[in-house]
Amino acid sequence: MAKTTKTKRKEYTNEDVKLIKAHSKARTPVAKLSKLMKRSVGSLRQKALALGVGLGHQR
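Structure (tokenized):
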């Protein structure tokens, strides 16, 4: 029988949101921010979209 894995999700804290907004203003590349926050690029883009801020150096 195949082993199923439970997906772990890490909630965004207020500090994470502040960091995303600060890097949005600084136009930090998303890949760099992804490594810094230890989150996927897609996750960061989705959160930025929900917050209504752009993300990345080219927008």
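The chain is about 55% helix and 0% strand. The first helix runs from residue 14 to 26.
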